[in-house]
Specification:
331 residues, Phosphorylase Kinase, domain 1, Transferase(Phosphotransferase), domain 1, 2 domains, five-stranded antiparallel beta sheet, two-stranded antiparallel sheet, 9 strands, disordered N terminus
């Protein structure tokens, strides 16, 4: 499947630009193999039979969802309306039996987390990190300008296609900020507890004052550390301990753990700017894009040559990790 998938991502993205309509019935898709599993969702590689195109399908168990079907439909409609080269598009969504089916392009390079755990357990080189995270910021800038918080930025939700293009994925917990008062006045107060504890901003954990898009900037800073160290801060601790450490301790830094690679002063400064406990003092995605750290960023072909070249396919990596190569069989 990987050869077809390598060619298909650009085709699918191009068709998304002109709003190609993908089927909304389960019999139009052939599920091939499981590519990932979470608490309430399973991701499958599949074929869209009418177009003969590889796709990825997330099956979300509606019985395990903590929100109503109406909320899920509204979120899916929001996802469907997004159109940016650094965001993984939602091609179609529909309910079949007890699952919500969410159809997305199949991204053959897999997640940055999967790549690190297979081949770079001690972290990535700085130019690679800069190249990936610049495009993540571009995606976040687009979302934030539309009043949308991603709420789960981490290496596991950053995908690479065969050409090294970066796609920010998994809007399963993304939410649109509610409008209130006059036109354009956003009520910046979400009080729902979602996201992954290691990457979660302090104000999201506290659930007292609500939070806004600056929670994503904290998660972005934690993801910088994740890519430098090979894991997020406190990653080996239980969730409640992570919450306590995040709330009570000073923010983690690039030097909180020893690294096996050299990192610049600019990267240290960028991490420190993101990981400020007071969200009002965190910079926006737009302003972070101007930071000197990103002067070391390259184009997508750089990632293809320096990160993806020579790697087995995602299913092969998963099987090899299950057999003991790498650390954990995550995608």
């Amino acid at each position: 499947m990987s050869a077809g998938a390598s060619r298909s991502i650009s085709n699918i993205m191009a068709s998304h630009q002109v709003r190609r309509e993908y089927p909304t019935s389960a019999d139009a898709y052939e599920l091939l193999e499981e590519a990932g599993r979470g608490v309430s969702a399973t991701v499958w590689s599949a074929i869209c039979k009418p177009f003969n195109e590889p796709v990825a399908i997330k099956l979300m168990d509606l019985e395990n969802m903590n929100c109503s079907l109406d909320e899920i439909v509204r979120e899916a409609q929001t996802m469907r309306s997004l159109n940016h080269p650094c965001l993984l598009p939602l091609l179609a969504s529909f309910v079949h039996r007890e699952n919500l089916w969410m159809v997305m392009p199949y991204v053959s390079g897999g997640s940055v987390l999967n790549i690190m755990r297979f081949a770079y357990p001690d972290g990535l080189d700085e130019p690679v990190i800069a190249t990936i995270m610049r495009d993540v910021l571009r995606g976040l800038e687009y979302l934030h300008r539309r009043g949308i918080i991603h709420r789960d930025v981490k290496a596991g939700n950053i995908l690479l296609d065969a050409g090294g293009h970066v796609l920010l994925a998994d809007f399963g917990v993304a939410t649109t900020l509610e409008r209130g008062g006059s036109w354009g006045n956003l009520v910046l107060a979400r009080n729902t507890f979602v996201g992954t504890p290691c990457w979660m901003a302090p104000e999201v954990m506290e659930q007292t004052q609500g939070y806004d898009e600056r929670a994503d900037i904290w998660s972005f800073g934690i993801t910088l550390l994740e890519m430098a160290h090979g894991h997020a801060p406190f990653a080996r601790l239980p969730p409640m301990k992570v919450l306590l450490m995040t709330l009570q301790n000073p923010p983690p830094t690039l030097d909180s753990e020893p690294t096996k690679k050299p990192y610049s002063k600019a990267m240290r400064e960028l991490v420190a700017k993101c990981l400020v406990k007071d969200p009002a003092r965190r910079p926006s995605a737009s302003s972070l894009l101007e930071h000197k750290f990103f002067k070391t960023a390259h184009d997508s072909s750089y990632l293809q040559r320096h990160l993806l070249a020579g790697l087995p396919s995602v299913p092969e990596r998963v099987q090899l990790m299950k057999a003991g190569h790498g650390t954990r069989p995550d995608v």
